[in-house]
Design brief:
Elements lengths: L1 E6 L5 E6 L13 H17 L5 H15 L2 H7 L4 H4 L11 E5 L6 H11 L2 H20 L12 H28 L3 E5 L1 H10 L5 H8 L27 H9 L4 H37 L1
Parallel strand pairs: 1-3, 3-4
Antiparallel strand pairs: 1-2
Helix pairs in contact: 3-7, 3-11, 6-7, 8-10, 10-11
Amino acid sequence: MRLFILPISTKHNLIYCERIRQHLPTNEKATYIDKLSRKAATTWLTWEQHNKGWQKVVTTYGNKLFQNLPHEEWGLKSIPPLRVRRNSYKVNGKDATRLEFPSSLIKEDAVMESLRYFGGKAKYAYHTKFMWGSIIGMPISAPFAVIPIVPNLPFFYLVFRAWSHWRARSGSAHLEFLLQHKLIKLSPSRIIDSVYAIQGLGRSLQALKKEFGSEITPPVQDSKSEKPDEGPIMLLLPSDGRIIAETLGVPELEQEVERAIHQVSAQLRRNKVAYEEQPALDPTVKKAER
């Protein structure tokens, strides 16, 4: 498998694992959870194809809900559970997992710090807590099953959240295992550096690719350096997700990058509004203190 650390802003990173495209060995059967996950995904795609009806309403609002789930959770979910890879690891370090990152924007020490954050005990405990919270809530949602028109949506939502937190927890545990056994090989990527350098020119990657073609590798700009009084700075535009995915050859990465950009930019806007409103409140606070 292949890991990526992609800076979304000067303070926020996206972690993603390229999915393993391989068949299970003949002596290894898919687990019940794997079968259930594939069935749920197929059913959801079928519902999305409806032009109207409650299935269409559920998928429309459901997709909006998925878009707002933390991108960190989605990133950890992309990492397969450890059981899938444990037997293939050689703890002597010869079978290390490659991690690609833009070295012009994030140094190796910062990459390792980010990995320790995603694979730390705090993340594991967080997803464990909410996984069990969702499981406990399942019986409480049982009375909704008496409504004959639609399925028990609260119950299925809690099932999904329990599964989602379990997968994120498993991804975090997998990362912890890799860190403990030094099975991560840091691999600075000039390709990713070029992608970020293009965005640093102040124009979207799509526009530049259309104008100059696929071979575009301008020098890294210094304009991305963060000033102390400005706070985090966005490093990507919403239109950059597709180009990043195409450049790296990982189509699934497009949606993850776009989701992370949407969430981080929204958070930074909220923080900016709160910061700008704070000085207006200070005189009131001082008056109250008198």
